[in-house]
Each structure stands twice: as structure tokens, then as C-alpha cells.
Design goal:
heterodimer; A: FAD/NAD(P)-binding domain; 8-stranded mixed beta sheet; B: 3 domains; 35% strand; Thioredoxin reductase (chain B); FAD/NAD-bd_sf (chain B); Metab_Enz_Cyan_OpOx_G3PDH (chain B); EC 1.8.1.9 (chain B); FAD/NAD-binding_dom (chain B)
Amino acid sequence: MMDVIIIGGGVVGCGVARELSRYKLNIALLEKTDDISNGQSKANTAIIHGGYDAKPGTLKAKFNVLGNKMYDKVCEELDVPHKRNTSLVVSFGPDGHAELEKLLQQGIENGVPGLSIIGQDELRRREPNIGSTAYEALLVETGGIVCPYEMTQAYAENAAMNGVTFYRQAEVTGIEKVEGGWKVISKAGTFTAKAVVNCAGLYSDVINNMVSEDKISIVPRRGEYYIVDKKYADAFHASIFQLPTKMGKGILVTPTVDGTVLLGPTAEDIDDKTDTRTTAEGLAKVLKFASLTWEHIPMRNFITTYSGLRAHCDRNDFVLGEAPDAPMFFNAAGVESPGLTSAPAIAQYLAEMIADKLSANKNENFNPIRKGIPKFREMNDEQRARAISINPDYAKVVCRCETVTEAEIREAIRRPVGARSVDGVKRRTRAGMGRCQAGFCTPRTVEILCEELHISPLEVTKFGGNSKYIESYLFEKGDNENA
Amino acid sequence: MRNVDILIIGGGPAGLAAAISAYEAGCRDILILEREENLGGILKQCIHNGFGLHTFKEELTGPEYAQRYIDKVLEYGIPAQCDTMVINITPDKVVTAVSRGAGLEHFKAKSIILAMGCRERPRGSLGTPGWRCSGIYTAGTAQKFTNLKGLMPGKRVVILGSGDIGLIMARRMTFLGAKVLACVELMPYSAGLKRNIVQCLDDYGIPLLLSHTVVDIAGRERLEGVTVAEVDPKTLKPIPGTEQYFECDTLLLSVGLIPENELSTMAGVKISPATNGAEVNENLETSVEGIFSCGNVLHVHDLVDYVSEESAKAGANAYKYVQGQLSREEDTLEVENGFGVSGAVPQHISKDLNEPITIMFRPRGVFKDAQVCIDVGDVQVATKKSRILTPGEMVTLKFSPEYLRKNTNADKITVRVEAQQS
């Protein structure tokens, strides 16, 4: 029997795995898809929220503020790029003042430091490109940005380094109570463990409801986004929220740690937990509202659009901790925004609780340090020369838009919990994430995946399942190799 | 740091022609840096014929056309370093490149010729709604899979955009056993060459749906189909009720090319918003002295023959510059895009022009029985009649020094079209 089974390979699941690996425990993580960071954690707003937004007294408020404070240390240990670029909640007219004041008070009540309301002059000094009707703003000094999938990968890699086993394509189809723990039936086999942690995101209701009568329900809330080319990296410095009005919650305009600009999201409750389509209406709405903040959105410089689903729980809050009627079954359910910000705090909270209940000893060999894949684009000439002399694959630029080399792509596949698909490579290296969106590098990335994983091009996928690139060989295999 | 007289970035048709012409002008210190393993650029994957009709009066395939230039480069012994990626250029012409063989190198060039070509606009830039499944390729990526890798992307194909690569790939995919259902073009006219529409679509019964676009993409994992709708030709917005669904596993995009100017920007070269390429004067010299630009990185051409012709000029001028024989007049007239004209190159012409040059542009629409006019200031100095102008075919105009003498007080040159838009 294992000690802990974690269900779900998003930022919360991988974070729990890493925090639990501080203890002498036998831990496995089961992920439904072919890769970690494949649900909410790959498509969200990538913000480290200050914590003024959640209702005082909620778990969202508590863990948001706690998580925010933990980010600098976690990112340093795990070598994840993040930036305290501040957030601004902007009102577009004088009648927003009372509402800003309310947010300020709510933030103070939640224990958020560094909040103040700034006037027109200060706002324009900070953000010269802000729309002409911007009136004043709540400044959130602790607001920041982080790459959510890099955060998730870093957690996963560090967990794997410290002994956690990852199973992918391991959808959980049933959980049964057994003597001394739980039997977890998955598509990757059946496991028994003393404790189970539910970090299944959009499906955290399904997993919880398998074992608990304290039922919850998750509604997928879709958000659509645009990404603008890096040319506009300096358009805004802060993450700029719009003060919610009768017209809607407003649309965010924010720089990302990778230098692009993100516009979005919409918020639409839908029925289907797999429906990550973008829609004409949704995308139009993003532009309509974003243009309040950014009047001259460079319409010819979008590099992509996407949508993500938030796991909105009918309880309007996170569901954290042991289920009341299922001992040693722990929930991190309904974790939607500010879930990314809260993740380090949720992971620590659950790991400590579980370790305590299992009376686990500290893992003396735990190493909190994980290093990211050295990025050629961030090196100076001296570092580049040295990298190439050690590994000549650093001289082979595969993705021209983001200057990603073959060395980085191979390492992304070889690492613990490494890439298995083209999108997996993309999220780990940024190859294909630039302005040509993988036009040039796809054929080469496909080849490298074949070489590293010993598979044929017919088996390479964009993101697992049937998302294949190649339908057939044009020649007999032997001819093909001579061609 | 290695010193070199002329450093050429890119070993495709533009870089090769520039190198040969610089050599023939007398330069003996040239270096071509090419990022791929072989010279030839995009022509390597263009295995269809139709290249070289102007230059060689013969119909060649892409690789054959490139080989003529590669053979010359070899014959002249011009050094070309392949598998070498340039990662930086400074305004004072220090070039940083990396390669497996030589590691990281710095070159100090007297003159640089930018010949990096262009890349394709992706789906993301269009904001087409729907699923983000596999099975969506730019036409050039699919061309690389079929022609260089021997891999077939899919069997039922819709093509969005009617650029030349899309048209060529409609035919190629048909040859390879795929069913091409339609070529869908947003504009009321094609952006491709007329001969490609005839030889690649019409000959195989592939419908060209003008004023149509893809409004939805279906398929959770692999593409399953696309919804196509008619658009209002004025607003380019889809017309509700005109939707039709095409079941397909492959969508090829041929929705425009973007000159690849990251390096040019690093060097401080000013980029024209009209062409997305460098702004150049009549010598194809950019805003940075001694740095020249030619081929598709300067502006997207219709025929490779014109790329070669233009690049040969850049090569010869670069050598003149190296010898100190190229005057750089700061006193220039700007070339303005008048009615019906888009992306005229060069953007600046010296007031002391002393030999004829060519101006190239793409018409901004389809014009029948048209006349292209050049004005110097407000004086019309030349006209050229044309039965039909389309955006797919570039217009080449001769511009003689004597035109400037017809109005010495002029502050600009305007190129414009006179016609009824059809």
C-alpha cells in the first residue's frame, strides 16, 4: 500500500506532490491526460493576485493572501520566472470611487499590504498608454505575474526529483474504501493508498462525489483570451483590471513574464467541461472591453487566441481539507481564480495536514532546489559560447521566433515528467509560442520527439489522444529514409 | 572577431544572387551565413515548376532554379557557412552567429546584406474561433512535410487564403491523393498569381470561394471540419445564414507572408509599416548605412525571378559601398503610396539620382483597364497602361533620373492607379 495518491497534475496537484515530498512517504500522482498542466493550469490569466478581490472570511481570501506571500521564495527555489509588476484596478469615470474604496477596505480586511488609491496623474505617470477615460485606480503593490505552466512543471520536476512517481493517461474511474485506506482504480492501473488527495480541477466534483455524501458541483466557467506580440511588451507595466460595473466584470490587460500582452478573460458558464473552444462573440467581447484600457489595440499583432475553463464550485469558495465523511480523503476542490496564487499555500496546508495524520517523518534528503532548462535566449554571449561548447545542440536554433534551441527541446523531453507531445515541448521551452505559432519549428520538433521517444512521426501528437500531425507515409518506409 | 567585406545573411535565392553579383562586381571577401543545412532557402521545398521563366527563359522547379545559383557560388568559390544561425546584428555591423561546428562567432562586416526571407501568418493572428486541434498547418509547413519529409498531413483538405503557396499546395495535395474541397478567400479577389489559380485550382475542379472565410473550426483532438461563410465584401464580416460545413481533417492556411525582420530591427534598421520590410533607398540601402536588404525580407515578391534581379542590385551596391563609391544622399524624396498602391519599394529616392531604377508595388485591389501613374510633386511624369492589375501580381515601373528634372521643387514622389475598381 502506498502512502498518498494525488489525483490531478495541475498546479495544485503538483504543488501538493512537491510539498508532500518533504516527508518520508511513498507518493504517486495520477494525471488523466498525456501531460501535467493540461487543464486550468495551462490556460488562465497568469496573475499573482493581491487578494483584495475575495470576500473576507473565505478560503479564497485567506489562501490568496498567504499564497501571494510565498511566491518569491517558491519561485526562487524552483527557478520560475515571476515579477511583482503590481496590479491596478482602474475605474473609468468619477462614479467608480465608492467601489474602489470598497475594494480597498476589503483588501485591508483580508490583510493585503501595499494598497492605495491613486489619482489620474499618478495613474498616467505609471501607465502612459492607458485609455483616455481612465479616471483613478486601486494600486496593488503585491500584484504580480508568473507563468502558470512553468510553475506547474517546476513543482512536478521537483516532486519527481524527491521521489514522487507520476502516472499519465491515468484517469481515475473509481475510488473504494478498503481496510486502512483507499483503492483508486485508474486507466493506468489500480493503486491502494492510505490517503487520497483530490486536486482534479474541473473534475474535483466527480472525484469527491465518488467517496463523499457531502456532494459538490463544479460548473465550467469559460474565459477567452487574446495574446499580443512581444513587440508590445512595454505597452503596460502593471496588470490592469477594470473596476467591475453593471456592464460586466471587465477585461484585464496584462504583460506576461514572457513579454507578450494578454487580453481577457470573458466569463461564461457552460455545460461541457471539455469545451475549450473560442467563440466569435467571446473574442469580440474581449476586444470591446479591453479597448477601454488600451484604445489602440494592435489588431494585426495578435499571435493567438485561446480559452480556459475555471472550475467554479457551487459553494462559491475553495473546498479544502478532509471530507467530513471520508477519513484520509482530502479535497482541493473548486480551486479557481485565485487558485494559481493560492496554490503554494494550499499545497503547504494540505501536505502538513496529511503528513501529520500519517505521522510521517521528514525526508532528510529533500532538495527544494529545481533549476529550469537553461534558456539560450536569456544568455549573454559568453554563456552561449560555453553552453555550445558543452552541448553543440545549443547552436541549433529550432524555434526562430522565441530563439529556442534543439538542446532545450531535447532536455524538455528528457527531464522528469518530460514532454510527450508538441504542445508539451511548447509549454516547457516556448518553441512554437512566438509570432509564427510553430509554422517553422513544427516539422523539426516532430522529428526530435521521434528521436527522443523512439516513436514514428505517425504517433506524434499535438497534445495526446488523436491530435496527430501525420496521416501516413508518402513512400514505403525504406524508400522514405533514402529520399 | 572575423573581418569580412560583405556578409550576407541568408542563403536562399536572395542571398545567393546578391553574393554572385557582389563577386562579379569584383568583391573577393564575401561570406554567406545560412541557418539550414543546405543553401537554397524555401526553394528547396518548392518542387513544382514555373521558376525561371524571366531569368533563364526556361521553366524550372524550385530546387533546379536554386541549384543554378548554388553552382555559381561554388564555381566562384564564395564561402557559405551553413547550419549557422545569426542571433544578433549591431548598427556598427558586428554580427553574432552560432553553429555546431564553430560555436559562437563574431564577424565585423564592412557591409551587410539582409536576405532572411519571410514567414507565414499563422491561425492565431486571424483570431478564427473554434477548437485548437491538430490538422491546421500553414501551407508552407504542409509543403515541408510532403516535399521534404515524405509525410502526408491529411486526406480531406480545405485551404484558407489564396496566396500562391496555398494554391500550389491545393494541387500538390491532390497529386498525393488528398481531396481538396475548396479554397476559401476572404477578399473578393485572390492574392495569388492568375496562372496558379488556373493550373492549381481550375484544372482540378477545386472551387475558389471568393468573399468567404472560415468562421468555426471543429474537432477536439484532430480537425474534423470547418464552417465556411460568405462575407460582406465591404465590411469583411460573415453574413449570417450563409454558413456551410466542410468535413475535413486538414486546414491549410495561406493568409499572408511576413518578412522576417527581427535581426534588421536589432541592427536599428527602420521598418516600413506598409511592407513590414526595411525602408530602403534606390540602392536598396536601409536606414543604417552599409546595410542592404533584398528579396522577401524586404517585401514579399510574386516571382523568384524578381527576387534574384533585385538581390543582384543589392550585391553590386554593397560592393560599391565597400569601395567607398556609393554616395548616400540624405536629400531624398519619399515615395508615397497613392490610390490603389500598396508597399511601393524603394521608399526613398535621391534627388541626385543618375541612373534609372525600378519601383515595385502591389495593387490594392483589382483594377481593369488601368493606368499606373508616377507624379513628382504634383507633376505627372510617367504612365503605364495595364489591362488588369491584381494584388497577386507585382507591378514594376521604370523610374528615370529625368523625371526628377520635370519638377525640381517637388517634395515627394507619388505612385498611384487611375481606374475603376472592379
